[in-house]
Amino acid sequence: MNKKLSLFGLIGITMAFFGTVRSVPTLASTGWAQIFYMLIAACCFALPIALISAELSTGWPEEGGPQVWVRNAFGEKWGFVTSWLLWVQMFFGMVMVASTVGVLLGYVIDRPDLGHNNLFIFIMILISYWGITLLNLKFDMVKIAGDWGAVIGVYIPFVALVILGMMYMAKHGINQESYLGHFEASKLLPDFSDLGSLPTLTGIIFIFAGVEISSVHANNIDNPKRNYPIAVIASVLLLVVFNLAAGLSVADSVPAGKMELANITQPFVIMTQDLGIPAIFNNIISLMILVGVLVQLSAWVLGPSKSMIKVAEEGNLPPFFQKRNAKGIPIVFVMIQAIVISLVSFLYVVVPDISAAFLIITITTTILYCVVYLLISLSAIKLRYSMPTVKRPFRLGSKGNGLMWFVSILAIVSVIVTILVSLIPPTSVPQSGHIAYIIFQVAATVIMIGIALFIYKRKKPEWKKTDR
Asked: Keywords, A to Z (predicted)?
């Protein structure tokens, strides 16, 4: 009999999914408005999606998650589109994650100037991702790295950043030259007249992307009806508090207009220099975060591809995609994603501003995630009516469908608003590039969905793998 997760155990697992210092500069760049952005992202995006996913995962607990839910609601085609989008979003997401490798390595070797070199960033993305990919073909890198990768690369740097921020603020108060500047109540709200600042909301929402993952544990907790919503709400609130503590610390230390979104070491350097802490601290902390980034890349190399090969073996993709190596690794998917990630990373060569390229790729990833969340939310409503008798250990509302409608509509509206805001060119994109930016985001989304629909339309019965 499987041991049940405790309430605190589930909170810990949920926190582990989203613990990262990479998104802190994006959050901090909004100044005091980050409080508003985080509350909106948590209450209108993370919580609704997490609660909807909890009901769906307890009602349809089989492996596959979102793909299974959407398939049961809208059929095989949209189930395939869902699994496809969850795979292809990593093409952009992993480029964004890997882009920090070059910046961090520059600090490790005392060459921070390399973090501003687009060609170096591009080369380091290629070396790090292909290196991790090839290692994963031979070894189980996630098992080798274990939990220590998250401790070294996420938790320790996160705590260090907050402590340094508190020391810095205790010494100076609120830095008038920083992103916080002189406090005014009006600064707690975004400047809605500056439309170019609004896409940053997308980058902040990306902090919670993948929130549905923890729902797989909803069936493995005592009294899920009571404990799962408590765990989700507690986890999201803790993430809000921790991210704001770090975000406000960074916003108080970095001079206004100087934030480097792909450079998490920047605030460490500013604060340690001011506080008289030896510079070797920054080399060490950069190395620790670099370890965390490489461990995260390693986890993503095989995870989505293992899900996709199951979809392929169900007959949604030709036999060519169903090939595995001697260790059972879906070699074709692993190689395709490495090639496409290499092509997407070329954006760092053609976009001069590294922070702009970082934000553009973050936004693209979030848009693709939002399409999946739209399908999940619609599926939750549909399944309430098409399969009302399915037992749901966790259910939104004891009776009736009112609460499900409220939570789902909140999620749907939030997702649609996020997509629309994402199409507004950020301030970092020059006026001359606005049209190109919109075309890139729309084309990336339409093409990725279109490829999935095209493949499904061409599927053949003989594609389905049969046991010999």
From this structure: Cell membrane, Membrane, Transmembrane, Transmembrane helix, Transport
The pLDDT averaged over each successive group of 10 residues in the chain (468 residues) is: 68 66 85 91 89 86 81 92 89 84 91 89 92 84 64 85 92 88 84 75 80 69 77 82 90 90 88 93 92 80 79 86 84 91 87 77 87 94 93 86 94 93 85 88 93 90 74
Token pair for 158: 């996160």
Domain boundaries, given as residue ranges, for the chain: 7-463
Contact yes or no for 80/457 (Cβ under 8 A): no
Q: How far, CA to CA in Å, does 185 sit from each of 33, 180, 188, 189?
A: 10, 12, 6, 8
Which CATH number applies to 7-463?
A: 1.20.1740.10
Dist. CA 146–CA 133, nearest whole Å: 17
pTM: 0.83
Give the span between the Cα atoms of 31 and 302, in whole angstroms.
Answer: 37
48: alpha, beta or left? (left if phi > 0; alpha if psi -120 to 50): alpha
Tokens for 270, please give them.
């500013």
DSSP code of residue 195: G
The amino acid sitting at 181 is G
List beta partners, residue 178: 255
- Cα gap 126→107, rounded to integer Å: 19
Whether the Cβ atoms of residue 375 and residue 82 lie closer than 8 Å to each other: yes
DSSP state of 3: P
Report the chain's C-alpha Rg in angstroms: 22
